[in-house]
Design goal:
With 705 residues, the chain is mostly helical. Among the domains are: 141 residues, Alpha Horseshoe (Serine Threonine Protein Phosphatase 5, Tetratricopeptide repeat); 120 residues, Serine Threonine Protein Phosphatase 5, Tetratricopeptide repeat (Alpha Horseshoe), CATH 1.25.40.10; 111 residues. It contains 38 helices and 2 strands. It has a two-stranded antiparallel ribbon. The radius of gyration is 45 Å and the shape is globular. The N and C termini lie far apart (107 Å). The C terminus is likely disordered. One of its GO terms (molecular function) is tRNA binding. One of its GO terms (cellular component) is mitochondrial matrix. InterPro entries: PPR_rpt, PROP1-like_PPR_dom, TPR-like_helical_dom_sf. Keywords: Repeat.
Length: 705
């Protein structure tokens, strides 16, 4: 074949030479390159012409030539060459299907869930974005009065939302100091500590100067916070900042600081603040001493003696006590003790001149003129706070080292009778005398007065009960008489506190209803609940039930606390089950406290049948279980340490196995009570941030606790 014929094979409309060469390399071309042809043909760019040439031939001729050429080429290839080609192309067939789409089965429910999740995400993004305000343009003062009105109605959450969302985000107004102060004050009444200081920090970032009312509200929120430790730390830090700036506090702010010290710290810190008030030249009022009386609650052992000393110091300054002060005295008498009898006798039974240290008012003419102007408030002299502090925290060793009191100090005309201290079995009479035939009223004393105590009284005996401490204040009649001397009438809170401190079953307790009518005080359910609780604790269940008709006569409806107080006296199973049946008839569902009281009564008698009946009724009503109930039942399910069923028979514990089996099954079906966070109702964050805010608040609350 010459050169001209060879060139003719690769030219023209039907290049036969190219087709022949492609068929010779058919297998390698398909396995290596697919339909694109050999590499050297692709490099030349002639594969398209060859592939198109058979289609241009007639159908029969093209197919016959292709088949014959393929058969001849394959027959010419050896078996070894075919095997090598297969080994080289093994595992490459999936390249044809690499770009194929994969389809999975789906349902309409999955599609709806996907659309729902997508819509929720879009709504959250839309909520986070500030919306343009299309309403009328309001001023910061309008928002101030609006938030103040909402806070007075008890809608703190709405006031916070109005300020943060509408005023700041939507309307984008620049807030004023009054806007922050009114919200911090609302948080102070609710004890929302974290939000109050967050508003205070935001206020400082906007270069707004806090006022005296702002600091008063901040100290008040520390006093009202449910977590006293963290509140005390925040208040001390704020006080240090104010002292570093040499910021002068007014009397109201000092009162808020004194309230914080009384509720979060102790009486010593109250006296430190009180000393600072006196040193700054502020007028000490009856309200100041009321906060000192609140500080006496912190010392459960000696708080009553502290309260009497503070009270007599207030009277020595000429200050007129208030109704709130008398209520605080009754509260201290209910919760706190007198302390060491020798110290109390040395401080409360000595003459007035030794217990009221005073010093003249320091300062110039203007200071004395201001003091004379405040005589109407009872502040004409400045008391020596340090001397008062020394007397309050006097040690027993210091009392014994003191000089003995001369007998001439009591008057030469009076004979000093021989007196000794004696404690009667009931503990009611703490003052005794060995004088012959003493008058029944000769030993009566009222430590609320500034007058000298009777010479027959030398020392105190054992003062253990609230009734004993009320007797030191003159009893029921003497206490109400002192209130009448100052032009005060008891309110329902005063009479409720008196019902708590009078001796149970005494004539004074029975005369409380008469006092209620004499002073024309409208009774409430709390007053009658107090009387029922005292009778139930004495085991007088019938006497407690006898008060129920009195509630109906006065038009008072019993509440759950009424039935809880009745449950205290239900020691027998029939009484407790009858109480639950009566509540069902009254369409009232017992709460956890009522069941806990009944469980306690059954546990004291080791009546496991009664316990199972209580748990069954609790299960029927689906009342959630709290930690107190679980602790009581766990104690009931334990065997006593010395219990041996094989040694002797115990009638009280023979049914404990049945109770343990039922209690185990009962726990699996009962719901648990979840204690709500105290700040949950005040949160105003978007829905997407609720979980994060809840975790942050709970973490801060646990740290504070």
């Amino acid at each position: 074949m010459d050169l001209m014929r060879f060139a003719r094979l690769f030219s023209g409309p039907r290049p036969v030479g190219l087709c022949a060469l492609q068929h010779l390399d058919l297998l390698r071309a398909k396995r290596a390159g697919g339909r694109e042809g050999p590499k050297w043909l692709r490099a030349v760019g002639l594969t398209q012409a060859c592939s198109s040439s058979p289609s241009q031939l007639p159908l029969g001729q093209g197919n016959q030539k292709n088949r014959s050429s393929v058969r001849s080429d394959v027959s010419q290839l050896g078996p070894m060459a075919i095997q090598e080609e297969e080994e080289e192309s093994f595992g490459t067939l999936s390249n044809k299907y690499s770009s194929r789409r994969m389809f999975r089965k789906s349902t309409a429910q999955l599609y709806n869930l996907r659309l729902r999740d997508q819509s929720v995400e879009e709504d959250e993004e839309r909520d986070l974005e500030p919306k343009p305000w299309r309403g009328r343009k309001n001023t910061p003062y309008w928002y101030f009065f609006r938030c103040k009105h909402l806070i007075k109605e008890g809608k703190l959450a709405e006031a916070l939302d109005l300020f943060e969302r509408q005023m700041l985000k939507e309307e984008r107004l620049q807030p004023l100091e009054c806007n922050y102060t009114v919200l911090i004050g609302g948080c102070g009444r609710a004890g929302y500590l974290k939000k109050a200081f967050r508003l205070y920090n935001d206020m400082k970032k906007r270069d707004l100067e806090p006022s005296d009312a702002t600091y008063t509200a901040l100290f008040n929120v520390c006093a009202e916070s449910p977590w006293k430790d963290s509140a005390l730390q925040s208040a001390l830090k704020l006080r240090q900042q104010l002292q570093a700036r040499n910021f002068q506090l007014n009397l109201k702010t000092y009162h808020a600081l004194l309230k914080m010290a009384a509720m979060c710290a102790d009486l010593r810190m109250c006296l430190d603040v009180f000393k600072e008030i006196v040193q700054k030249g502020h007028a000490v009022t009856e309200r100041t001493f009321s906060f000192l009386l609140m500080g006496c609650f912190q010392d459960k052992k000696t708080g009553f003696r502290y309260a009497l000393q503070v009270w007599r110091q207030m009277l020595s300054l000429g200050l007129q006590p208030s109704q709130h002060g008398y209520n605080l005295l009754l509260g201290v008498a209910r919760d706190c003790g007198l302390g060491d009898p020798e110290v109390a006798s040395a401080l409360l039974l000595r003459p007035r001149e030794e217990t009221v240290p005073l010093q003249p008012l320091a300062g110039g003419f203007r200071a004395r003129r201001r003091a004379r102007a405040r005589v109407g408030d009872g502040m004409s002299v400045r008391l020596d706070v340090e001397a008062l502090e020394r007397q309050l925290f006097l040690e027993p060793s210091q009392v014994l080292e003191g000089p003995p009191e001369p007998q001439e100090a009591r008057g030469p005309s009076k004979a000093q009778p021989e007196v000794e201290t004696k404690t009667e079995p009931d503990g009611m009479m703490a003052l005794t005398s060995l004088a012959p035939e003493p008058s029944p009223r000769g030993l009566e004393t009222n430590l609320l007065t500034l007058g000298a105590v009777s010479p027959a009284v030398v020392s105190f005996g054992t003062v253990t009960t609230p009734a004993d401490r009320l007797a030191l204040m003159g009893g029921l009649e003497g206490f109400l008489g002192k209130m009448a001397e100052h032009g005060l009438r008891p309110n329902i809170k005063t009479l409720t506190l008196l019902a708590e401190v009078v001796e149970p079953g005494s004539p004074a307790e029975s005369s409380l209803l008469t006092v209620l009518d004499v002073h024309q005080v409208e009774a409430d359910v709390t007053f009658f609940n107090t009387l029922m609780r005292k009778k139930s604790k004495l085991g007088d269940l019938e006497g407690a039930k006898a008060l129920l008709p009195l509630l109906a006569q006065r038009g008072i409806l019993p509440n759950l606390k009424t039935f809880c107080n009745l449950a205290i006296g239900c020691h027998r199973p029939r009484d407790g089950l009858q109480l639950l049946a009566d509540m069902k008839k009254s369409q009232m569902t017992p709460n956890t406290h009522i069941y806990s009281t009944l469980i306690n009564a059954a546990l004291k008698r080791l009546d496991y049948t009664y316990l199972i009946d209580i748990l069954k009724d609790m299960r029927r009503n689906r009342v959630p279980v709290n930690e107190v109930v679980i602790r009581q039942l766990e104690f009931a399910a334990q065997y006593p340490p010395s219990f041996d069923r094989y040694k002797e028979k115990n009638t009280y514990l023979e049914k404990i196995d049945g109770f343990r089996a039922y209690y185990k099954q009962w726990l699996k079906v009962m719901p648990a009570e979840e204690t709500p966070h105290p700040w949950q109702q005040f949160r105003t964050k978007p829905k997407g941030d609720q979980d994060a805010i809840a975790e942050a608040d709970m973490h801060g609350g646990l740290e504070g606790r």
